[in-house]
Amino acid sequence: MADSHGSAGPGGDSSCCPRCDSPSYLILFRASDYLYETEVRTFHVVECSVCRLMRLYPTPTADEVRSFYPESYWWETDSSVSGRLAELYRQFVLGDHVQFITRHGKLSAPVLDVGCGGGAFVRALIDRGVPAVGLDVSPVAASMARTEGHSTVVRGALPFAPFAPHSFSVVTLFHVLEHVPDPAALLLAIDDLLLPGGKLIVQVPNADSWQFLLLGKLWSGLDMPRHLIHFRAGDLESLLEGCGFTILRRKFFSLRDNPASLATSLCPRLEPVVRRVRGLKESNSVRLLKDALYASLVVAAIPLTLVEAASGAGATVMFEAMRTGEV
After folding, report:
1. Furthest-apart CA pair in the chain: how many Å?
2. How far from chain centre, in Å, is Cα 134?
3. 305: which of 145, 166, 258, 310 fits an S-S bond (Cβ 3.0–4.6 Å)?
4. What spatial distance separates the first Cα and last Cα of the chain, rounded to whole Å?
5. Which one-letter DSSP state was computed for residue 221?
6. Which DSSP string do the residues of 113-153 spell out, in sequence order?
7. CA 306 – CA 302 distance, rounded (Å)
8. Quick check: 184 and 242 in contact, CB under 8 A?
9. Is-above-0.90 flag for pTM?
């Protein structure tokens, strides 16, 4: 898979590994934004020659990163038949994440969902009687959340969010850490927000998955160029432990994410958000047909994704962690 070595990025730009600060890397492959087509440039996925962390290269600037996210990147509900059915399914599968958090009973303080997007998970928690607050840097996502009545969604980014230290029982990071250039700084900021004994729930695409092994740069979990770091399960475990967290539990299957990851990788032009972002013109009947085909593909992918997860090679990995010394 690898095709060259280097100690400075393509084009001469320097960008050190965010984990070990090494400038040396191995190029694994080159790819562009084949999902949403927001950027015509080709990027590299490289592996650090020292710690083997995989990342996007060259590292984009903050302004470039903002341009990679189209306004329609976030899930939106609509009044069509397929839209209503999709929302019902989405709320159903979010229950898996809610159960992961609430299995020990009532929490002593609210949940903070960092990178909450349009606030669907916050709403799922509140609907089940769990106090929750969402945080997202995107004005579009925050506006969407307010439009749907989520007054508990705040626009902002850590470490500058308007929350007092030790305010939350649980902080969640669902598919956020891979978008962050300095994940260790984010984890340390989260530690300040947790109550003593509080939990961190973090989920990322798993670059040790069968899907990545089989599909390579066509795996939707790469989501280039929006994903800046591509974590293997061991990478994330080491990062959490290095930031002072103790791993309590790990999980390699998400009903919301794993089957959809495979379906989108195989047929990206059927995925509803991809179609909306690309601005594809569709009649109601064509839209309904594509939605039905995509839903069928997601359902068909469930058995395989269950097997890969049981083998510890699921398309996502989720960790529950606690600060060391507070177990």
Report:
1. 58
2. 15
3. 258
4. 41
5. G
6. EET-TTSHHHHHHHHTT--EEEEES-HHHHHHHHHTT-TTE
7. 6
8. yes
9. no
How is residue 192 written in tokens? 């300040």
Does residue 10 have a cis peptide bond before it, meaning omega lies within 30 degrees of 0? no
**Quick one: DSSP state of residue 34?**
T
Give pLDDT tens digits for 42-100: 999 999 999 999 999 988 988 898 889 877 665 555 556 556 666 677 777 777 788 88
**CATH node for 71-323:** 3.40.50.150
Task: Give the helix ranges, DSSP H, for the chain.
Answer: 62-67, 81-102, 120-127, 139-147, 183-193, 210-215, 233-242, 258-266, 272-278, 284-310
Query: Do 31 and 43 touch, CB atoms closer than 8 A?
Result: yes
Give the tens place of pLDDT for each residue, 273-294: 898 888 888 898 999 999 999 9
Selection from 313, 94, 72, 74 nearest residue 209 by Cα: 313
Single-letter amino acid code for the residue at 134 = G
User: Which stretches within 129-219 are classed as H helix?
Assistant: 139-147, 183-193, 210-215
| Cα 267 to Cα 147: distance, rounded to the nearest angstrom | 31
Pair of tokens at residue 74: 């976030």
- Token readout for 287 is 């839209």
Q: How far apart are CA 270 and CA 126, in angstroms?
A: 31
Q: Is the peptide bond preceding residue 58 cis, with omega within 30 degrees of 0?
A: yes
Q: Is the Cβ–Cβ distance between 319 and 201 less than 8 Å?
A: yes
Q: In which element (H, E) is residue 25 found?
A: strand 25-31
Assess whether pLDDT exceeds 90 at residue 123: no
- What is the C-alpha to C-alpha distance for residues 223 and 70, in angstroms, rounded to an integer? 13
Show me where the domains of the chain are located.
Answer: 4-67, 71-323
* Cβ-Cβ contacts under 8 Å for 307 (sequence gap 6 or more): none
Question: Residue type for 39, please?
Answer: E
